[in-house]
Specification:
Blueprint (H helix, E strand, L loop, with lengths): L20 H13 L2 H8 L3 H14 L6 E3 L4 E3 L1 H28 L5 E6 L7 H12 L4 E6 L2 H9 L5 E5 L9 E9 L1 E6 L19 E4 L10 H5 L5 E5 L3 H9 L5 E4 H4 L6 E5 L8 E8 L6 H13 L9 E2 L1
Helix pairs in contact: 1-2, 1-3, 1-4, 2-3, 5-10
Length: 322
């Protein structure tokens, strides 16, 4: 075991001596066997080396002898008996640290703090959590939900180890290490009987005159950015944040809504999904983001690998697809 000095304290009464864990290890072996010779044999050292370690420990603790040197072997002094439980506590604490670090390295323990945006929580995150739990049950996963800009702030500040984010929201991603998970297509959710239902893929411009249901009063930084790129500003009739609530508005004929493929699998049966034609590129990309230059634990790396494995390559919406 390598030396681990214990640093000094803040006052003369609380001053901690500079101790080596090697000294404590030797001290415990000598106290256990009552002999410098036997301790040296167990440690693979010479007797003189063991004697020097004990002398150094005694000097660091103020010079009080820890052992009475007898004609045959040694015996703990009062000072030595006082030191034994403290030395054992230090040794056990270090053994515990080694066990925990080994568990982290082997993904048998540790913790991963991650965040995800709402639609990733609908299918991607639950699948990843279930798969990861089966493989690494000793790792604690803690999750936050939020919009991509907030998740990136939490990531930068050190409150998260990684964040599942999307290119929606115009959040700057250049400062982060991005692990690509999937590219998403878009669908337009329309009520049953809508003129476009059953018509197959559509250009968003075909819905330029429609009432839209969106999570924001402005299309900028939302999925409706796609409409701006196609040359029209959508008329947002209702601002509704939660996905299932948006579907209720659509089903009631109050407007149409854009649905990303991650959320398409949970669409209610009285809403039809019409695929949106990709104009040369997917509507948005989804990444697991980490801070560039900040190391990710073995458990974090394993979680990213699981996310990649379970990320859908060809989303299969459950609802009615036109």
């Amino acid at each position: 075991m390598a030396d681990m000095p214990i640093q000094h304290g803040s006052s003369s009464n609380d001053t901690l001596p500079d101790l080596s864990t090697v000294w404590l290890r030797v001290f415990l072996e000598v106290s256990r066997h009552g002999s410098f010779t036997v301790a040296a044999r167990v440690l693979g050292w010479t007797q003189s080396a063991v004697s020097r370690q004990i002398s150094s420990l005694e000097a660091a603790l103020g010079g009080e002898p820890l052992f009475d040197r007898l004609p045959r072997g040694v015996r703990l002094t009062e000072a030595g008996r006082v030191l034994v439980p403290h030395a054992e506590a230090v040794a056990e604490s270090l053994r515990g640290a080694v066990r925990e670090l080994t568990a982290v390295r082997e993904v048998a323990g540790g913790r991963v703090r991650f965040g995800a945006f709402a639609t990733a929580d609908s299918a991607l995150v639950p699948r990843a959590l279930a798969a990861f739990r089966d493989r690494h049950p000793g790792v604690l996963l803690s999750r936050e939900e939020g919009l991509t800009p907030r998740l990136l702030d939490r990531l930068t500040s050190g409150h998260l180890d990684l964040a599942i984010v999307s290119t929606t929201g115009r959040a700057p991603l250049d400062a982060y290490e991005l692990h690509h998970l999937l590219d998403e297509s878009l669908y337009v959710a329309v009520p049953g009987g809508h003129p476009l239902a059953g018509e197959g893929p559509v250009h968003l411009a075909q819905l330029a005159d429609a009432d839209w249901i969106s999570g924001s009063a402005r299309p900028e930084g939302t999925l409706l950015d796609a409409a701006l790129r196609q040359g029209f500003r959508p008329r947002i009739a209702h601002v509704v944040a939660e996905w299932t609530a948006k579907e209720g508005y659509v089903a009631a004929g109050l407007g149409v809504a854009l649905v990303p493929s991650l959320a398409a699998g949970a669409v209610r049966p009285d809403v039809e999904l019409v695929p949106v034609l990709d104009e040369g590129a997917p509507a948005r990309a989804v990444y697991a983001a980490t801070v560039r230059g900040r190391s990710l634990s073995a458990a974090g790396v394993a979680f990213v690998e699981v996310l990649r494995e379970v990320a859908p390559r060809e989303p299969c919406p459950r609802g009615r697809i036109s």
